[in-house]
Design goal:
Helix 2 (71-87) packs antiparallel against helix 4 and helix 4 packs across helix 5. The strands form four sheets. The protein has a five-stranded mixed β-sheet with strand order 8-9-12-10-11. It has a three-stranded antiparallel β-sheet with strand order 1-2-5, with helices on one face. A two-stranded antiparallel ribbon has the order 3-4. The longest helix is centred in the C-terminal third of the chain and has 21 residues, at 155-175. The protein is built from five helices and twelve strands. It is α+β, with helices and mostly antiparallel strands and 215 residues long. A hairpin with a 2-residue loop joins strand 6 (41-42) and strand 7 (45-46). The radius of gyration is 16 Å and the shape is globular. The protein has a single domain (53-212), classed as 2-Layer Sandwich (60s Ribosomal Protein L30, Chain: A), CATH 3.30.1330. The chain is 30% helix and 24% strand.
């Protein structure tokens, strides 16, 4: 599978698995597995590649990340959740406990990006860096970064914008200390609205799912 390589202003390049690109024609086609990967250089250090499934599990184990099990999962995620809520209070970032083993962070586009732009707003970079620092402390988790768009404009444009926004958020998280083996990036374009009408601002967002690594 061939994925499009994009480089951003933060000197990081990411591979996204929601679409594939023909290197000759430039034609984009959907990848229904919706798996993402990260590749590139952050601070001059080569990142390599990371796939989903067993490849991701093996990469985490190879990086020395220990798996959680049993009652330790709930306790570990309780502490992660409370720390995130306390340190992100008043930031505009939504912190939701999805279940015992997963936490959702929601970054609304109006706080994170200018209209139709993929670069993270300068005033929001410290907040994202803070998130990266918190997640560095709780390394026994995976970090999935999902980009979304509203339905204004062409499907292909919205898909690309969602990918670039997710990649730039992941880049700052990585610079904040989240190792590449934990990160997975996916763009969903306009395919997953959370409210109607589909043009609503709430649909323009980046979500970060923090999940207990259970091996």
């Amino acid at each position: 599978m061939i994925r499009k390589l994009l480089t951003g202003v933060l000197a990081a390049a990411f591979l996204v698995g929601c679409t594939t690109v023909d290197p000759i024609t430039g034609e984009r086609t959907a990848n229904r597995t919706a798996n993402g990967a990260i590749i590139g250089a952050i601070g001059g250090a080569a990142l390599g590649t990371l796939a989903g499934g067993d490849d991701r599990r093996n990469a985490l184990i190879g990086a020395g990340v220990g798996a959680l099990a049993g009652g330790a999962i709930g306790n570990y995620m309780d502490r992660t959740y409370q720390n995130l809520r306390e340190r992100l209070a008043g930031s505009g970032v939504g912190v939701t406990r999805v279940n015992q083993s997963q936490i959702l962070l929601n970054f609304p586009a109006d706080l994170t990006f200018d209209l139709n732009r993929d670069a993270v707003k300068g005033q929001f970079v410290p907040t994202l860096s803070n998130v990266g620092g918190i997640l560095r402390e709780y390394e026994q988790t995976t970090v999935d970064v999902y980009g979304h768009a509203d339905c204004t404009g062409a499907d292909a444009y919205n898909q690309d914008l969602s990918e670039r926004r997710a990649m730039n958020v992941a880049s700052i998280l990585a610079q904040g200390g989240v190792i590449r083996q934990r990160l997975l990036v996916t763009g969903y374009g306009e395919s997953r609205p959370i409210t109607q009408p589909c043009e609503a601002a709430a649909n323009r967002r980046v979500e970060v799912y923090i999940s207990a690594f259970t091996g």
